[in-house]
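Reproducibility note. Readers wishing to regenerate the assembly model reported in the main text can use the exact inputs given here. Chain order matters: entities are listed in the order in which they were concatenated for prediction.
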Amino acid sequence: MKNNILKQFPILKRKINGKSLVYLDNASTSQKPLVVLQALQKYYSTTNANVHRGIHTLSEEATEQFENVRAKVAKFINAKTEEIVFTKNATESLNCVAVSWGRLHIKKDDEIIVSGLEHHANLVPWQELAKEKKAKLKIIPLTKDYLLDIKAYEFLLSKKTKLVCITAQSNVTGSLVPVKKIVSLAHKFGAKVVVDGAQSVGHRVTDVKNSDCDFLAFSAHKMLGPTGVGVLYIKRALMDEMTPYMYGGDMVETVGQEEATYHRGYMKFEAGTPNIADVIAFGSALDYLTSVGLDVITAHDKELLAYAKQCFSKYSAVKIFSPAKIEHCGGVLSFTIDGVHPHDIATIFDQEGVAIRSGLHCAEPLVRRLGVSTTARMSFYLYNTKHDVDVAEKALKKVFAIFKIKN
Amino acid sequence: MDLYTETILDHYQNPHHVGELVDHSVRVVEHNPVCGDKIQLDLIIKNGAVSDLAFVGDGCAISQAAMSLLTDEVKGKKISVLKKMVPAKIYDLLHVPISPGRVKCALLGYVALENALKSVKKK
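Running the prediction on these inputs yields the following structure tokens for the assembly.
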């Protein structure tokens, strides 16, 4: 990637334990470019006011900027502006579907299908919904290559299936999911599909019209935006078949002493003052991602992943949990080292300035399926370079040296 | 800072008192849900003291070495003495700086022992 991209991320100049920071924990959260930091400062220095309420200039400006981001988000995923709901993160977006759609539409003995790849955010809300409604949770198994077993999925689908909850990309194995195919198969049985796009939307082109998914959840902070902003795309026709998620100001039409009526459309899901500044700064992140180009980012992720797999698979003590073909993976690489716990791998990497994640990655059933207690994980983004992978490999060799591992 | 000292690596790779005691007086299992670390600790109590103990664990070098070091410390000691043991003792045994992120790892064995001793009283 070009130097001007690296210059956009001031944090990359930081030293960690005396070494230059190599940030490879992008599946957890991404770093923020200057344009996002500046947008925050600019908003609070020049515009700060509450939205959707005031008649005064600042309030009108804040509202306009805030609503412009809704339009930008819609364009980014090829939705309509009125199909975009702001939440605090992807987890809240998924919970909103479970509560506002699920409680109305899931009945006793209905079936909800989830996959074996899911993050807890796209699993636990459905476990709870199934428990509450006495519905059944069905799990799509994985192939030996860490991909969804589509044949098994087809077998699970039936008239009882009311909802399919699927990630677009695993945060542990990087496995990509054929969302469009999953959706078209589900729709044949009249089931709705909710997609967890947290790992995907900031890394490759997302087109909700093309995939025809019913709901899509993602987080701003994993795609260069601030923390505290999530998005929930809801197909417009479905909004009227949903209850509000929270109750209070901003989501109401009229309020009497005894009862109230609520906005239709996206506003009924956004109670209270939203995260105005961070939403506006998220707009700058979207502009920046668009200017770099999502196709460029996808290709860059894949290049680094292929290079990292090549570097790390040289060592016999290293086990990699990743689909064989690069075309089936996003820029995430989980691995273990025989005889070294992933926590210790992460600590030694950190001593070399390399930030990686270790643990269960909020995907305990998936990690269990891999047959290990935990994994170490590197994940890439647009500001990473092959040099970063070289530094990670150097840290890997240090792990071998400290733990006296022979390859 | 050197977290991975010879002592810690030695206790991690060749831990003391590993295994299960069929005739245990108490058995506790302690997890760290964040990192998946796990310790099962068996104690045999005779005359108000820990006459023998053993553990089976899966976890990072810090959690497993801390448990191993602790077993050496605990064996033969009276329960009344062990109940007065404070977490600082573990840091002394490990003898390396423990960052906030690793506190739960370092103290996993301590918490297991604490819970085991509590359940002795109940019996």
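We highlight two features of this model. Residues 57-76 of chain A form the longest helix (20 residues). Chain A has a mean pLDDT of 96.
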